[in-house]
Amino acid sequence: MIEEFEIGFLRERLIVPSSYNFGMMKDRVIEKAKEDLEKHTDIRFTYQALKKGSGNTFTHIEFIISKNFDVLEEMEKIEQLPHYLQSYLNFVNKLRTIYKETSKYFMQLKIDLGDGDKSYFFGINKDDLIYAMPFDGGDSIQVSKAKAEIIYNSSYLTAQHSKTYRDFLTVHKGDFWDLAKDEESRDYYKSLATEISTVLKSNDPRIKPMF
Q1: Among 141, 144, 93, 146, which Cα is nearest to 121's?
Q2: Which architecture characterizes domain 2-72 according to CATH?
Q3: InterPro entries of this UniProt entry (predicted)?
Q4: How far apart are CA 164 and CA 166, in angstroms?
Q5: Rounded to the nearest 5°, which phi and psi values hold at 40?
Q6: In terms of CB atoms within 10 Å, which end of the chain has fewer, N or C?
């Protein structure tokens, strides 16, 4: 599949800092996305910059997208997966669908952030921003889109190998509290804490109070 985008459009959608010239955008944003996708999903792509018009400036980028067969081969070794776990994009779309159906936080991962008994639920709003909401009340915090991708990646990879998590993704409104009481589920939530908690503990200035 071939897709072509204006560079200005990509800058806006990928939230590229205005201080980045094209070379920096390519090295720090596009190449990083390419590396992450090839490592964690069944998507592989190559790209080339194009000059359209009379000037000497690059104006568009053409992407050639294909399947990452190395990852697909590994996925085939895992027990049969729900269709929404066959690719990273399907996974994210599934999460968005659950959000629309339940109108509540759908990535409700109860994790220990190492601050006493306080635990958090992760959720997403209509703007695709991840929130962490304390289980026992208090201010929620908003996680930047860049940090949200880290949470997505971690959750996606874990979901491929965890029946508990896969089942959790299919839970609808009203059933979550029963699942949260389950001992296996609680253990699973704790197992996610080590990696994901570092996202919220970082000093990234983009992490700020929601209210």
Answers
A1: 141
A2: Orthogonal Bundle (1.10)
A3: WH-like_DNA-bd_sf (IPR036388), WH_DNA-bd_sf (IPR036390)
A4: 6
A5: -110, -10
A6: C
Element (H, E) at 57: none
Both tokens assigned to 98:
């659950």
Task: Please state whether 204 falls in left (phi above 0), alpha (psi between -120 and 50) or beta.
Answer: beta
Round to whole Å and give the CA distance between 166 and 201.
27
How far apart (Å, rounded) are the C-alpha atoms in residues 23 and 19? Answer: 11
Largest CA distance in the chain: 65
pTM tops 0.70, yes or no: no
Are 77 and 97 in contact by the 8 Å Cβ rule? The answer is no
As a dihedral over the C-alpha atoms of residue 137, residue 145, residue 90, residue 22, rounded to 10 degrees, the angle is 180
Which residues of the chain does CATH 1.10.10.10 include?
Answer: 2-72
Q: How many CA atoms lie within 13 A of 29 on its CB side?
A: 19
